[in-house]
Every structure is written in structure tokens, then in C-alpha cells.
Amino acid sequence: MSNDTSQNGPLEKVIELRLPSKLGYERVAMDTASSLAKRMGFQDDRIDSLKTAVSEAVTNAIEHGNQHDSAMKVVVLLTARDDELIVSVADQGRKPLSQNCTTKIPHLEEIMEQPDKGGWGIWLIRELMDEVEFTTAPSGGNQVRMVIHLER
Fold first, then answer.
1. Which neighbouring-strand residues pair with 89?
2. Beta partners for 87?
3. Is the dihedral of CA 78, 139, 125, 151 positive or negative?
4. Is 50 helix (H, G, I), strand (E, B) or coil?
5. Distances (CA, A) of 87 to 16, 37, 139
6. How many Å apart are CA 54 and CA 30, to the nearest integer?
7. pLDDT in tens, 53-111
8. Domain tally for the chain?
9. What CATH number is associated with residue 15?
10. Angle between the 26-40 and 44-60 helix axes, to the nearest 10 degrees?
11. Which residue range(s) make up the domain with 42?
12. Listing from the earlier edge strand, what are the strands of the sheet with 12-20?
């Protein structure tokens, strides 16, 4: 962990994970986020929401962004502040997410007709986190920035 002691902003603790694009490694990000959230004082139900959102974001990066290319990494940045936890998940993929993909609300009928198509992950992330933003990552891939606020 590194600390940012700048005069202008809050004290931050940052953890960076570089994960291989192999299913199963989403658990490493999920467990790290969970441990950090517990240390910060998040309630169990909020930690469960965080774990689900992180797992979905990393899985999407592995499957869709990096297309299971084990040479590509998924970079997860966890930034702990006094009142929030920010999680950024970036892939190295070359296929940008479409705007429709990041804002679409899935319809149960479509999912049932084409179960392999997916469509729930991004919706779930938006429902479980307090703030969600999709951008282009510094690596040129896709990035999702998720924020969960600490309720005291």
C-alpha cells in the first residue's frame, strides 16, 4: 500500500493488482476488495455488493475485453479514502465497449432466449455500486471505475 500525503486531497491507500486473463483470478480481486472494505468498516451487506461488482467487472475484462488472452493483464486499482472505496478495473483489449452495452437494461425474455449472451454483469455493477463510470483505460482498453461509499 502506498500513501498519498498531499495537502490538497484525502489520505489514500492504494493497492494495485495485475491479474492474468484467466477465469478464477476474479476471486483474487474480490477477496482483496473484501478484506480492504472490512478494514475500512463497511457493513457485511455492502461488502457482499462490492464483491459481486468486482467479480463481474474482472470477469468482463477477462472474457470480453481481453478475450481470454492469457498474455493480457487485467489491472485492478483499489483506492481507499476516509469515506469511500474506489475500484478501477482495466483490460488491455482493443475492442471498445459500446455505449449501448454500458447503459442497456437487460430484459429477462432476451436472456432466457439466449442464455449464453449474458447482459446482466454491467447492470448488476450499476445496481450494486454508488457510482459507476466506463472510460478508455490508459492502456487503450476498457476501464470501469466503481465507487462505494462508507455509511457510518
1. 76, 144
2. 78, 146
3. positive
4. helix
5. 10, 11, 17
6. 6
7. 999 999 999 998 999 998 999 999 999 999 999 999 999 987 776 655 555 555 556 65
8. 1
9. 3.30.565.10
10. 150
11. 2-149
12. 2-4, 12-20, 73-80, 84-90, 142-149, 131-136
